């Protein structure tokens, strides 16, 4: 048990002898979201009162909420010494609850007191909570639970006649001749229906925040009894932006009035739009307290960049959260095998550069100068490993200076040019961009087929190793950004030649395919994300040249029809083959292709 949880458990034990919790109360578990439970309300970012205060024998019992923090606290006023206030928190819709959270008693000659703040929801643990303030003042009373209904575009229990479209994401299920269907619409709302039945049949939705493993606060939603041969529920949301829960899944269930008792469809996530659906599924794996996608450091930078490219304002908070939680220092093992030394620097030079590009994207998205300052700081760090003593230039892959490779060269070129293009009056980064572009083109990394091999030998020759899609993409993106910086048309021409070579040389039956996608091969955690990175930079080139639209459209169509499951999880093999690999890295990669095709 961690210290915070131990403290909460001890508090509950101490006060348990002083105040009996109502029936249904249970031991508390510490929750950390943007902050951990038991935070002083003086740090609250806002104060709102979404439920009415209660008059408890002349005392004012109030629930205070800060949505920007995702936390709440309770207060009692007009009281006397010994009056108490605390919070209850439920994870199952109010059937049971953690009681006595932050219990405080009015001391001395005071007339009021307040609790500490507690988290309402637990996105990292995929749980949606309810909170209420309770008090004991010559009797026990509580406010209403806060946010019992989920609200997104519409709120829970909206009439299904307001649905925007009708998609059935999974096959219907049958039950003694009845047909039970799950429906979703373009707003991400869901409802259930039963057909070909009779009076007394029932139909409802189940909703889960942990991909169908449990559904304690979402069972039997909108349960309705048929009076004729059919019935349908009202609408229910599958995303809770207030609680930062974006990846809810639903299923339709029913019970026949006669015969076999019940049946449910498969679980599904709505797909209001391709990229939005993929982004919701990616956000399922984001852990907001540490502010990253555990447990891959550079992959988190690439996933964040893709999420920024998607451009949904619901996720803008993730940018600042990731920045603030990760710009410090971390020991080896906390964010990867290497220590992180502050400002996203580590011995892996390419890892640092990935974060530099993420903060360039963040600056472009928000206009916040702190992101450009960080990108420039990282670019300075990477530039420190530019070395003309070996191969006439190029950036070393690692601090030990063991390898000059395509990924670090492409990252540096893109980052140097990006910093110049966003820094008024700059000349230093412009000079570095020209030097890096010239070196890249003459380095030998690009082979005779205009494909980029992995790196150089110690005697500075192309090593003939695997042509990875992300190296091809970074070369395209680096040369394109360098063209923007310098106006040199030869760089844009070469970016086009590299793209043309990839479209034919890195595909199978028109679908982008990594070498580790073939046969029974598997891709490691790095390789899982390569194709999405290629897609980002090809899309950037397409925006300049007007070409490659058909190619990007084909990738998105193949992903959507062949590499996606009912929860909108995207696999490694975009052509849809087995065995496949599915995790947040493959999800970020697929999202990159869907964004590219918009």
Describe the structure in your own words.
32% of the residues lie in helices and 17% in strands. It is α+β, with helices and mostly antiparallel strands. The strands form six sheets. The protein has a five-stranded mixed beta sheet with strand order 1-6-5-9-10.
Key structural traits:
single chain, 598 residues, alpha+beta, five-stranded mixed beta sheet, five-stranded antiparallel beta sheet, 13 helices, 23 strands, 17% strand, disordered N terminus, signal, 6-hairpin_glycosidase_sf, MUG_Protein
SSE topology:
Blueprint: H1 3-16, E1 25-26, E2 54-56, E3 59-66, E4 71-77, E5 84-90, E6 97-105, E7 113-114, E8 118-119, E9 130-136, E10 140-142, E11 173-175, E12 178-184, E13 189-195, E14 202-208, E15 221-225, E16 231-232, E17 236-237, E18 249-255, E19 263-264, H2 274-283, H3 297-310, H4 316-326, E20 329-330, E21 340-341, H5 349-366, H6 369-383, H7 406-421, H8 428-442, H9 469-486, H10 489-505, E22 507-508, E23 511-512, H11 530-545, H12 549-562, H13 584-596
Parallel strand pairs: 1-6
Antiparallel strand pairs: 2-3, 3-4, 4-7, 4-8, 5-6, 5-9, 9-10, 11-12, 12-13, 13-16, 13-17, 14-15, 14-18, 18-19, 20-21, 22-23
Helix pairs in contact: 2-13, 3-5, 3-13, 5-6, 5-7, 6-7, 7-8, 7-9, 8-9, 9-10, 9-11, 11-13, 12-13
Low-pLDDT stretches are 1-22
- CA gyration radius, whole angstroms: 28 Å
What is the CA–CA distance across the termini? Answer: 47 Å
Global mean pLDDT:
95
Protein name: Glycosyl hydrolase family 76
Keywords: Signal
Pfam family, one: Glyco_hydro_76
């Amino acid at each position: 048990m961690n210290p915070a949880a131990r403290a909460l458990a001890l508090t509950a034990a101490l006060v348990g002898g002083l105040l009996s919790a109502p029936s249904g109360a249970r031991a508390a578990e510490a929750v950390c979201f943007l902050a951990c439970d038991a935070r002083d309300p003086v740090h609250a970012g806002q104060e709102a009162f979404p439920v009415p205060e209660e008059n408890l024998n002349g005392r004012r019992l109030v629930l205070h909420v800060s949505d920007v923090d995702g936390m709440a606290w309770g207060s009692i006023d007009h009281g006397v010494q010994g009056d108490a206030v605390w919070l209850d928190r439920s994870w199952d819709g109010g059937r049971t609850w953690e009681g006595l959270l932050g219990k405080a008693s009015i001391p001395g000659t005071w007339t009021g007191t307040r609790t500490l703040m507690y988290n309402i929801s637990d996105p990292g643990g995929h749980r949606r909570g309810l909170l209420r303030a309770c008090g004991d003042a010559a009797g026990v009373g509580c406010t209403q639970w806060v946010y019992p209904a989920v609200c997104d575009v519409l709120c829970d229990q909206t009439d299904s006649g307001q649905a925007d479209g009708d998609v059935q994401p999974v096959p219907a299920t049958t039950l003694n001749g009845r047909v039970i269907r799950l429906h979703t619409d373009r707003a991400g709302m869901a409802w259930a229906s039963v057909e070909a039945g009779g009076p007394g049949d029932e139909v409802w939705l189940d909703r889960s925040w942990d991909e169908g493993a449990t559904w304690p606060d979402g069972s039997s939603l909108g349960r309705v009894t048929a009076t004729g041969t059919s019935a349908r529920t009202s609408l229910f949301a599958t995303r809770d932006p207030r609680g930062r829960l974006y990846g809810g899944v639903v299923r339709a269930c029913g019970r026949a009035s006669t015969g076999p008792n019940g049946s449910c469809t498969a679980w599904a996530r709505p797909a209001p739009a391709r990229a939005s659906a993929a982004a919701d599924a990616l956000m399922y794996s984001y852990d907001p307290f540490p502010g990253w996608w555990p447990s891959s450091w550079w992959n988190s930078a690439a996933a964040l960049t893709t999420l920024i490219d998607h451009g949904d304002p619901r996720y803008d908070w993730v940018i600042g959260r990731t920045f603030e939680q990760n710009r410090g220092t971390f020991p080896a093992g906390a964010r990867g095998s290497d220590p992180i030394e502050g400002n996203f620097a580590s011995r892996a030079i390419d890892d640092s550069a990935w974060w530099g590009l993420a903060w360039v994207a963040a600056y472009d998205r928000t206009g916040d100068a702190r992101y450009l300052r960080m990108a420039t700081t990282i670019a300075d760090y990477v530039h420190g490993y530019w070395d003309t003593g070996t191969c006439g230039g190029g950036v070393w892959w690692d601090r030990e200076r063991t390898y000059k490779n395509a990924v670090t060269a492409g990252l540096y070129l893109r980052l140097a040019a990006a910093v110049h293009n966003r820094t008024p009056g700059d000349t230093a980064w412009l000079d570095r961009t020209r030097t890096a572009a010239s070196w890249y083109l003459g380095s030998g990394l690009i082979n005779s087929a205009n494909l980029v091999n992995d790196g150089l030998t110690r005697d500075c020759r192309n090593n003939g190793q695997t042509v990875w899609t992300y190296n091809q993409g970074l070369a395209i993106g680096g040369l394109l950004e360098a063209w923007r910086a310098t106006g040199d048309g030869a760089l844009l021409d070469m970016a086009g030649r590299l793209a043309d070579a990839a479209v034919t040389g890195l595909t199978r039956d028109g679908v982008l395919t990594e070498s580790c996608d073939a046969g029974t091969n598997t891709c490691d955690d790095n390789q899982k994300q390569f194709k999405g990175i290629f897609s980002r930079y090809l899309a950037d080139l397409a925006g300049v040249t007007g070409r490659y639209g058909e190619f990007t459209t084909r990738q998105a169509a193949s992903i959507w029809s062949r590499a996606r499951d009912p929860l909108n999880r995207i696999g490694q093999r975009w052509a849809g083959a087995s065995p496949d690999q599915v995790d947040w890295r493959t999800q970020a990669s697929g999202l990159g292709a869907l964004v590219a095709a918009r």
